[in-house]
Amino acid sequence: MSTPNSGQQNDIAIYTRGVSKYFPGVQALKELDFEVRRGEVHALVGENGAGKSTLMKIIVREYLEDEGDVFIDNQNAKGMGIRDVQQLGLSLIHQELNLVPMLTVAHNICLGQEPLTRFRTIDWKRMRDKAKEFLDQISPEINLADRVQDLSIPHQQLVAIARSLTTKPRFLILDEPTARLDQKATENLFSFLANVKNKGLTVIYISHQLEEIYQICDRITVLRDGKKIITAPVNELPQGDLIRRMVGMEITQQVPKEHVPIGEVILSVRDLSPEKKGENINFELKSGEILGIVGSIGAGKSEVAHAIFGSDPKKSGTILISGRELNTRNPVEAVNAGLALIPEERKAQGLVGNESVRKNMTIASLEKRFCAARLWIKQTKEKEAVRESITTLKIATRGTEQEVQFLSGGTQQKVVLGKWLMSDSDIYLFDEPTKGIDVGGKHEIYRLIMELARQGAGIVFISNELPEVLSLCDRILVMYQGRIAKELSATTTNREEILFYVMGGKENEQDTKQSWPTDQ
Amino acid sequence: MTMPAAVEPGAKGSESIIVKRLLGFSIRYSIFVFFGLFFAIVTFLRPGFMSLGNIYDILVEASLVTFVAFGEAFVIAAGAVDMSLGNIAGFGAMIACYLLSVRDFPVPVGVAIGIGVGTLVGLINGLFVTRLYMNSLVATLGTMFMLVGFLYMVTFGQTIMLLPDAFTWLGTGSILKIPIPIIIMAFAFLICHLLMEKTKYGRTIQLIGGNIEASRLSGINIKNVILFAFVVCGLLGTLSGILLAAHQGLANVDLGERFLLQAFTAAMLGTVIFGGRNVMLGTLCGSIFLISLINGMTILGAGPEWIYFVQGSLLLGAILLNYYSKRVLPGLYR
Amino acid sequence: MSWVGRKMSRTQSSLGQLISNYGTILAFLVAIIFFSIATDTFFRLGNLQNIIIQSTALGLCAFGLTLVLIAGEIDFSYGGIIGLVGALLASMLQQGYSPLSATLVCLLVGGASGLLNALLVVGFNLSSFLASVAVFFLCMGAERVYSHGVTVWIQNRTMLSLVQGHIGPVPTPIVLLLGLLFVCWFLQTQTRAGQHVRAIGENIQAAREAGIRTSLVKSLVFVLAGLLFAFAGCLETLRNGGAIMYAGKQLLLFVLAASFLGTATFKAGKANFPGTLVGAFFLITLMNGFTLLGMKFYLIPLAQGLILIASVAISSIRRGEIEQVKF
């Protein structure tokens, strides 16, 4: 736990009063009052969709608030734009690592402000010195002369952070900074933050990691559904309370979970280590079962799905479908074996935008169902099947020939689902299937997923929206930093417990066992 | 941290639909209008343009181009290009003619071998793209170069002239008053159209061209499909070369040079003419339009340089139209 | 999705790495050694000088292309610019204009084409592939219309002496080539603007965030490339002694090949000036050596095609996924 900062001023660095923001279909922020004191490291926590990103984007003026006031350094941010708040010393470090691979670490740090010799050429020595000044604050190990492309990802993230320091920010917003960091790099970051507190740098720290929050932050603000729930010093808010406030007391049983007979093991994953992220993933899936996988950003959920499906390479691991080993070096094998993947990015990965509903729906089942002599497409049969699907799934389209790029998000997702239904898959891997879909659409998808389970399919349901995970899934795997941290049974757990593990909580921590009243 | 679950609006207001329809219309029909006007003007100035004899000539000339055009259309639909097509045509034709003329092979065998060779080159192109992951532009430029060398090797630069009558009949003869090339073109069109619209291969080619990642994640074997497109392209390309040689009665190293630009233009036009649907029919029309354009300009007395320039501009126009309809139009909807 | 992480995951054999890092130089050395052994006319000062002189126009043109490649775009317009400029130069000289004004006009034309490219790519957001092909055709067409296909020979002594003369003991073209190499290399690696071009080419988003004015820089790149192309065109015309129709088309592949070969040099992995020069020398050396060996002239394009493919394949094979052409 962090010690209170001696000599801390009670000056408010940034605050918002009554800020509201509306997006079509959802009230993102509701009359939010939020304040950050100068020199503190202030944690901002909340579940997915609680409003953290939106609030930050409003503060940095990427979005504009509908109502309310934003003050930065005692100045009203009303008329300001992104550049203006940057001038004030505000800096946001976000997800995109914007570095230039071929240039050196030193150069990346000084990009755009390279020191010049009197001949107007780049003064490499001075640039190195300048970069060193900033890099040393973050990590002593990274070599200035290395090209960024040769660095490991954690190191690249650290360089990106070092880079943001060159604007000499006074207010730093870190959005899930440790998502890409490893152990050592995280330690580097924390030493940096500890040092910097004494120099008056104010930090807003958005995170899902319990350990970090309690280690380096001074105060915590909890958001839920766009409202501020509580702001308190870290030592006055134990983990259990924190999580309870994040989750709230709502008992949301969105779809009554019916009893579905669970059959044999249909998918076995053994010692899977996807190439990009993840280690030693082991689990089994039975037919009729819905297995949830949850975890914060960077936990490695999508990577697992893609590695199983064969669309991304894996370092090691065996996949067994009903006992038979699957050579999943490419999706072709997986699809033939009965796997289906509903990817996270509908438009980029799930659909061919400029083609019709019909062509998109039959893309995975052409040879299986609609081809004579493995060649000729029986279009009448195809159209009929698609029409049937459209009715069954209630797809809102003008007809089978409508181009999918003009359909709404929820409808597009149904087309993707329809595609796999048509190919009679046995195992469905859903990656954030209800992202960006309205409530009505979500419920329809839940209904369809349940129907699949009822028909004996095995379902892996990756999501970060805990209510839906709880109501749909039988078992829940919580992933944390690339590994499976905990397996929970949906009937005996609740949102707090899940969130606890999602945020990296460890079982032997004292206040866990007592504080999870199961209110289901 | 993801954005809050914002709902995406469905199709926007009706005004946009009308605008989109109008623009789509205008692209599609501007080509017809353009050519219609052109034909009208030329016929007005030189009535001989529309004479049966001339139309006959145009169609025969066009038929020679259609094969390469269809081939290129397949490759473009898959999201790649084949720059070596002209040389594939020439090389295949050269081999065939060499075997027929110098080695006295029977006509069917010689022609078959020529086609086989061209198909092989198409396969090699496809392998470069799908196994070596090369950019198709660069890979086919490389093959183009190599083929130039090979072309010379076959005959050391000499022109082959003494071709068997059975062979030249293919290019100059007719059945029931219809020239053979046109008959073959009709068959080829039918097969290509069916292949593209009604078979698994054509369908997957289109899907890959539309979104290769989504196709991959749907279980399509993208490597093999793209390979197939290149193989078909090579095969078709050779047909053009062989028929041209049969038509001219000779084969030289420059054979097929002009096919690349023409194939490309016709194929590009094909992707736009019918709004992106019925690509093969569009390509067919594109070939006919292109050849009529050249024919018309020649009748009007335009020199080769102007013709070349106009051809190039037409290609450019086709590329721009294609770009416009694929990229800009859908964007208008949002 | 950011690029980060993609490159990390491919582990390579050290041989593979060696080839992609230094392949061109190795191949070049092999070629030199081979030709020196195989013929006794290759490794002579006169011949070597010849190679460099012949590489000049190619090299200059390739520098222009390299600059555009560094900025993350592609440019085919040189195919047309070279011919157009040649036609202009030859006929202006014939009509009695001073060498200086003729050259200036040529450079102007080159710059204008570059500007057109910039307008299309930066202004209208067209793909540089399309835009430069468009400019290519325009220039080719303009050349055709201007010259009517007639070859114009250059009689002007002063100009011809430029290419055939010497500065000190060194032939002029060599001075020009090496001089421009140095200038290009220096500007690209030692000035802010030069490094910013690289940044734009690698990650334009990062460049924008760093405050770099990407539109301006990109436009300048196209214009400069146009100037270089024009300069190359002048030299090529002078070297040929006249404006041959469609001279640009001949060079088309060589210039591309030289630039791509340049990426497999000096451990660069990306386009760079010294690498491009090596690539150009390599290609000309091959041509020269093959000719000296009495190799049939038609085998030369064969070898070149093979080398182009090999040079690109060594880096592309690592990619692991199929690349599509964007129209």
Question: Radius of gyration of chain B from the CA trace?
Answer: 21 Å
How can the largest sheet of chain A be summarized? 6 strands, mixed
Shape of chain B: globular
Distance between the termini of chain B: 25 Å
Mean pLDDT of chain A: 86
What is the correct CATH architecture of the largest domain in chain A? Answer: 3-Layer(aba) Sandwich
Bin the helical content of chain B.
over 70%
- Tell me how many strands of chain A there are: 22
Description:
- The complex is a heterotrimer of chains A (520), B (334) and C (327).
- By secondary structure, chain A is of the alpha/beta class.
- Chain A is 32% helix and 24% strand.
- Mean pLDDT of chain A is 86; it is low at 1-9.
- The longest helix of chain A is centred in the C-terminal third of the chain and has 16 residues, at 439-454.
- Chain B is built from 13 helices and 2 strands; from the N terminus they run ααααααββααααααα.
- Chain B has a two-stranded antiparallel sheet.
- Chain B is globular.
- Residues 1-11 of chain C have low confidence and may be disordered.
- Helix content of chain C is 73%, strand content 2%.
- In chain C, strand 2 (166-167) and strand 3 (170-171) form a beta hairpin.
- Chain C has a single domain (19-314), classed as ABC transporter involved in vitamin B12 uptake, BtuC (Orthogonal Bundle).
- In chain C, 50% of the residues are buried.
- Chain C is globular.
- Chains A and B meet through helix 1, helix 10, helix 11, strand 18 and helix 15 of A and helix 8, helix 9 and helix 13 of B.
Present the secondary structure layout.
The complex is a heterotrimer of chains A (520), B (334) and C (327).
Chain A: E1 12-23, E2 26-37, E3 41-45, H1 52-59, E4 67-72, E5 75-76, H2 82-87, E6 90-93, H3 105-109, H4 124-138, H5 153-164, E7 171-175, H6 183-197, E8 202-206, H7 210-216, E9 219-224, E10 227-233, H8 239-247, E11 265-274, E12 281-286, E13 290-294, H9 301-309, E14 314-321, E15 324-325, H10 331-336, E16 339-342, H11 346-350, H12 357-361, H13 366-370, E17 371-372, E18 376-377, H14 379-393, H15 409-422, E19 427-431, H16 439-454, E20 458-462, H17 466-472, E21 475-480, E22 483-489, H18 495-502
Parallel strand pairs in A: 3-8, 3-9, 6-7, 7-8, 13-20, 13-21, 16-19, 19-20
Antiparallel strand pairs in A: 1-2, 1-4, 4-5, 9-10, 11-12, 11-14, 14-15, 17-18, 21-22
Chain B: H1 14-45, H2 52-77, H3 85-101, H4 107-130, H5 136-155, H6 165-172, E1 174-175, E2 178-179, H7 180-198, H8 200-210, H9 212-217, H10 222-248, H11 259-273, H12 279-299, H13 304-333
Antiparallel strand pairs in B: 1-2
Helix pairs in contact in B: 1-12, 1-13, 2-7, 2-8, 2-10, 2-11, 2-12, 3-4, 3-5, 3-10, 3-11, 4-5, 4-10, 6-10, 7-8, 7-12, 8-10, 11-12, 11-13
Chain C: H1 14-38, H2 45-70, H3 78-94, H4 99-123, H5 128-147, E1 152-153, H6 157-164, E2 166-167, E3 170-171, H7 172-190, H8 192-202, H9 204-209, H10 214-240, E4 242-243, H11 247-262, H12 273-292, H13 299-316
Antiparallel strand pairs in C: 1-4, 2-3
Helix pairs in contact in C: 1-12, 2-7, 2-10, 2-11, 2-12, 3-4, 3-5, 3-10, 3-11, 4-5, 4-10, 7-8, 8-10, 11-12, 11-13, 12-13
